[in-house]
Amino acid sequence: MPARRSRAVARFSLIDTARSSQAPFFDKEMMRRPATPFAREVEHWLAAHIADRYSLDAAAAAFRLSSRTFLRRVKEATGRTPLALLQGIRLDQARRLLETTDLGIAEIAARIGYQDVPSFHRLFQRTIALTPAAYRRRFRGGIG
């Protein structure tokens, strides 16, 4: 936990006039709105199945709900769809792996459920505003 906190403080405190976005420094865990018990259970289930191919029906079945009810309840509890929630969890994990391991980008993508590395790369860059390699260079070791 202290390493996670120090990374968050480092991201929050850095000033980089060359950047065009604050996204690389944003720590979703610090800004996340309070979760309901249902939202925490869904996040935990999605994180436990991070590398699995996403299936709304499978996720809903795990909670003994119809797909439609599951989608509605997740959106009410988190403000996001289950797929968007999973993508956020996957990207958070990718960021941690980029910061703390020497795994290649393809290995990280596979570990978090992306078989198509270019798709992972585009999603990461669109969301974080840096390529995975640039993110690693900037945040390796948690000190920016």
From TrEMBL:
Residues 40-138 form the HTH araC/xylS-type domain. Pfam families: HTH_18. The keyword Cytoplasm does not apply. GO terms for molecular function: DNA-binding transcription factor activity; sequence-specific DNA binding. The keyword RNA-binding does not apply. Signal peptide: none annotated. Keywords: DNA-binding, Transcription, Transcription regulation. SMART domains: HTH_ARAC (SM00342). This is Helix-turn-helix domain-containing protein. It comes from Sphingomonas lycopersici.
